[in-house]
Amino acid sequence: MNHAVRVYQHGEPDVLIWEPVDTTDPGPGEARVRHSAIGLNFIDIYFRRGLYPPPALPFIPGMEAAGIVEAVGDGVTDVAVGDRVAYATAPLGSYAEVRNCPAETLVPLPSGIDASLAAACLLKGMTAEYLVRRTYPVQAGETILVLAAAGGVGQILCQWAAAIGAKVIGVVGSDAKVEIARAHGCAHTIVTSREDMVARVREITAGAGVPVVYDSVGADSFESSLACLQRRGMLVSYGQSSGKVPPLDVGTLAQHGSLYLTRPTLMDYVPTRPELLASANALFEQILQGHIKVDIANRYPLRDAVRAHADIESRLTTGSTLLLP
């Protein structure tokens, strides 16, 4: 019997309920995928908490997984039975042993990219791709600032930027994460538990500040991130692990030097199948060329999703986390 994790009400990790669910034939345009590995991401926590509203309650969380196509519905031409595939976009529902997906969201996996690697990196890696190549196109020789540099997205983003030729300042929460950040492309590290981020950035950049800050922390770091930017710099606020950023007086951007602020999401950067495949293939190319290494540091049985969520929220994890059916 197929099992899944379902959420009946928003709240703490214990609202994640492991239970049997029905398996149905794929409808028109759908493919049924048996998961080999499921990616856990902070966006899953946002949906569980209700920071991002799901389509309805109850719901099965999760946006990322990899596995094998078991069946296809009418009209499906993008994938075939037996294909190795991964996905990292809506609709929700990856916390399941088997599920039906829109076939157009499935990315074929090239040789050299196995299911665990794909599930560990596709959402995070495509996020890093659009951040460093499209939201703010990082250039060789620039010095940039990346918060949560030892996290799943942070590790990939820092390596990608370093491969372009940028000098990366990585921000971490503890000394234990310094070596992780350095091993993943950071030329400098800042430990927020004992260092002033703004002062250190100004010191590293000889007072100039940085042209871009990639901030996935949100409320706790927003003001400091603005203060690290040079004139006409860009704050890319792409997450809110510490909570939502409070309402902003836009005059603040002028006071800090005519700054730019954006709040991007992956869905707006891969809205079409050609864009989805281009982003995924750019990531796979970086991995296969050896520019990006993915740290799968944490594996939990899918039935232990409660523990996995509690650990990631307590910042006990680094790198990528997998749930295994």
TrEMBL record:
Residue ranges annotated for the Enoyl reductase (ER) domain, each copy included: 11-323
InterPro entries per record: ADH-like_C (IPR013149), ADH-like_N (IPR013154), ER (IPR020843), GroES-like_sf (IPR011032), NAD(P)-bd_dom_sf (IPR036291), QOR-like (IPR047618)
Keyword hit for Endoplasmic reticulum: no
Catalytic activity of the protein: 2 a quinone + NADPH + H(+) = 2 a 1,4-benzosemiquinone + NADP(+)
A GO molecular-function annotation: quinone reductase (NADPH) activity
Entry keywords, A to Z: NADP, Oxidoreductase
Enzyme class (EC, first level): oxidoreductase
Family: Belongs to the zinc-containing alcohol dehydrogenase family. Quinone oxidoreductase subfamily.
NCBIfam families hit by this protein: PRK10754.1
Official protein name in the record: NADPH:quinone reductase
Organism field: Thiohalocapsa marina
